[in-house]
Amino acid sequence: MTVASSSRRRWLTTGLACAAAVAAPWPALADSRTVKILVGFPPGGGTDAIARLLAEPLRDALGVPVIVENRAGAGGQLAAQALKAAAADGNTLFLTHDHTISILPQVMRNPGFEPAKDFVAVAGFATFVNALAVSGGTPAKGYRDFVAWVRQQGGRAAIGIPAPASVPQFLVQALAKRERLDLVAVPYRGSAPMMADMLGNQIPAGVGSVPDFIENHKAGKLHVVAVMGRQRQALLPDVPTLAELDVPGFEEVPYYGLFAPAGTPKATLEQISAALAKVIAQPAVRERLSAMGLTVGHMTGEQLAQRERAYTEVWARIIRDSGFTPQ
User: Fold this and answer.
1) Longest dimension (CA), the chain
2) Measured by CB atoms within 10 angstroms of the end CB, which terminus of the chain is less buried, N or C?
């Protein structure tokens, strides 16, 4: 065999090996038939839309089928319990936000799971803000207009929230105290049914995430009148923050991330995190997430865990100061 043919053979072998490595599934998931992403809220809501947006490109990045499974109820509690019961093999993930991970365990005596013990953070991919929106059936177009309208109704109004004992509920309480109004938080099983009642003018206002409201706000079917966070949102430049409206305490920004059962191999977690980073770096995906009102950015599992702990401490103080008693 000549030197040239030997070199050509080595080059061909190396090239085929590299091609196989690119085409093969992620090693830790190679024996998986399906990766399931649990969502704790009904179809049609913001969290569900985000999960379905990410599922297809994650399938391509991981090399295995990826499906979304809704386990709606109790503010994500049922999905969290399902994650706890799942095998720690990377086949079951939980896409969720601050409420289920940082808030729910502090407002329930027995939620059926302990995030720090039962889950491991895989990766974060976005932050967002919650907002107060008013239904199109009210004459209000801004926050002060809404407060004035409630006073005209005798000082009492119902405000929808996606889940009981949630950040939206504490915001309703803070607004009632600040404005000296009788505001009643009405809990729903997720943002989708709350939105249906708002659009049907069955309820005059609601508190949810900007992704929940943004499309209907753009269409003029409802009006976002205030947002949480430290600064105004790029998609809502004319909408003031709560701090601007003299309602302090809601500056911290919640997060979205993927979580897995405790004990999932580190290599598997790192591979899923890398796949998610690859997905949200795609311009089309990033643009769609941004258009939903999310601030997109990859967080490693450790970075997400640190954010979770910090956010939990902030809300521990808010919940304690509110006088709320865990149910």
Assistant:
1) 96
2) N
